[in-house]
Amino acid sequence: MPYPYQIKSLEEYRSAYKKSVEEPEAFWADIAENFQWRRKWDEVLNWNFKEPKIEWFKGAKLNITENCIDRYLPEMAEKPAIIWEPNNPEERTRVVTYARLHKRVCQFAQVLKNNGVKKGDRVCIYMGMVPELAYAVLGCARIGAIHSVIFGGFSAQSIADRLEDAQAEFIVTCDGAYRGAKDIPLKSVIDDALIGNKLVKKVIVYTRTRIPVSMIKGRDVWWEDEMEYAETQVEKDGVVSFPAEEMDAEDPLFILYTSGSTGKPKGVVHTCGGYMVWTNYSFVNVFQYQPGDVHFCTADIGWITGHSYIVYGPLSAGATSLMFEGIPTWPDAGRFWDIVDKHKVNILYTAPTAIRSLIGFGEGPLKGKDLSSLKTLGTVGEPINEEAWHWYDENIGRKKCPIVDTWWQTETGGILISNLAGITPSRPGWATLPLPGVQPVLVDENGKEITEKDEEGLYKGNLCIKAPWPGILRTTYGDHERCRTNYFATYENLYFTGDGCMKDEEGNYRITGRVDDVLNVSGHRIGPAEVENAINMHTGVVESAVVGYPHDIKGQGIYAYVIFNGRGTPDEQTKKDINQTVARIIGPIAKPDKIQFVSGLPKTRSGKIMRRILRKIAEGEISNIGDISTLLDPAVVDEIKNGKV
Fold first, then answer.
1. Using an 8 Å Cβ cutoff, are 501 and 509 in contact?
2. 3-35: per-residue pLDDT in tens?
3. 442-514: what fold?
4. Do 519-642 and 442-514 fall under one CATH topology?
5. Which fold has domain 519-642?
6. pTM of the model
């Protein structure tokens, strides 16, 4: 069998899970033996959740790119590593073999070296979904630089904040990117982000859209020129080589920024050894990947899903990963199904948001599309509602494909709770069982474990994990105390996920959503404070409060309550102006779906905004507001209820 650690039956799952809990070090040592290490570990696991301090495979040396590329060259050099499907279906598909991937990653590692990048330096990557993005990520990993990919929809201000936090001196970008009918001017956004920046030394620019760009002498260089020169350095007599930097298992691999409940983004840090083992193990088992399968994860590499299940998970398993530049509804709503048909996709991993938006187009876009190659379907980003689950099952899987409903986070590195495709039972709307190594526990607000069922026969509480798995975050960049307070201080000796959850008697888990204020919009976490800060930047806004509400397509929409005292009476144009402000400061993804102008906000006498009340109103539960006697001005609630949009 190609993956000796691939679970093939429910009995094997139970046995693996039991061993992973009772003998975690022996269990993970066995899994880790399947990777290439330059030096084996002295200790499998050393941890406490108090500081927190978490070390996996301590003392081991490796380079993750040797595990993703080099080890597959002897037997699989001509096997497709990445199939790239462009935004425009008229444009040529690119197939990147493992040999070609090796050459390009070595070249780009040399480009980085030529431009002064060293081990430990932070490199910000802001690109469209082109294969060069994967080369950039892996090129950084090959020389030991820490990559920080920023989603191409973020604004200049958001990039500037991340550059400052990471103290990044290098940027890799494109002139522009294609996304559906839009051309996104990435380089000009970077130029705006760099106004006043004294730290960035080099900007490497890949040509994609041929949009006119400003190139600053001494700082900006063209990707193509740099790669051409590097090719002469890494290829001699047909042999390509660039020595991979030896990394410690606990050296940082990347920083990925995620929204918190405060306005400042958090730089989640993942390390080389544990992250590699976890993404590979979860990929092979959850999707039941078989050699030769084409795996299509529709996420953007700017999010953790793309890091783990387009790049590192599939490539470390010698898989074929399909990368798509565009969006599911352009040039029409049949684009996903065209891609599945064209490339004979076996595994499709997408978001409930995408599924719900495609349901709205009916079954017309499916006509004439051969989806018979599909073996496994998956969802990610948020719990999938039952209606969407059944549509996905019936229309896309033809009731023959298991659906894996995966729960995980940027901080977890990879999937933690999910059924294994065709191996463990699935249940619509439920993430079901934890993967081996994952020990969930439900607690009440005081941290006491929930041991009694409610009237529905379910255990309900806040979802925590009581022991580390190899892919857990190690810190938040430059601020370890923030990591401790965010994830490990709420409940003693537990990692707190921030999610509410229910569990049935069989041990299946169903995620019920965030218990903190963080919003989950189209599967992406957005901090309300971040959105409020952006709204408050608008010239006429005095104060604002943002909550989530149920949204048919996005899962959760953004509802903003705004106190306005600018010129004139606020109207629809004012709302558009506020949304434009948010788009400029954060990015279009954070624009409120609804804006309600109010004269005041429900506050306690200490000045705290009662979001619970605002959330209930936004959700339409106007008759079930609860006790408002502690408010400074209870009358404001009636005004807000009457003005609901």
1. yes
2. 999 999 999 999 999 999 999 999 999 999 999
3. Luciferase; domain 3 (2.30.38)
4. no
5. GMP Synthetase; Chain A, domain 3 (3.30.300)
6. 0.90
Strand ranges of the sheet holding 541-551, from the earlier edge strand across to the other edge: 541-551, 555-564, 594-598
Give me the phi and psi of 245, to 5 degrees please: -65, 135
Alpha-carbon distance 20 to 11, whole Å?
14
Q: What is the DSSP letter of 35?
A: S
CA distance 387 to 400: 18
Tell me the CA distances in angstroms from 322 to 11, 310, 346, one per residue in order. 32, 7, 11
Length of the chain: 645
As given in the structure block, the two tokens for residue 324 are 């798509």
> Quick one: three-class SS letters along 506-554?
CCCEEEEEECCCCEEECCEEECHHHHHHHHHCCCCEEEEEEEEEEECCC
Phi–psi pair at 54, nearest 5 degrees: -135, 120
Helix (H, G, I), strand (E, B) or coil at 213: coil
Q: How confident is the model over 362-387, as pLDDT tens digits?
A: 999 999 999 999 999 999 988 888 88
Residues 344-367 as b or e (16 or more Cβ within 10 Å = b)? ebbbbbbbbbbbbbbbeeeeebbe
Q: How many CB atoms lie within 10 A of CB 263?
A: 17
Domain ranges of the chain: 442-514, 519-642
263 has pLDDT over 70: no
Q: Is residue 238 exposed (0-12), middle (13-18) or buried (19+ Cβ within 10 Å)? A: exposed
Q: What are phi and psi of 418, to 5 degrees?
A: -175, 150
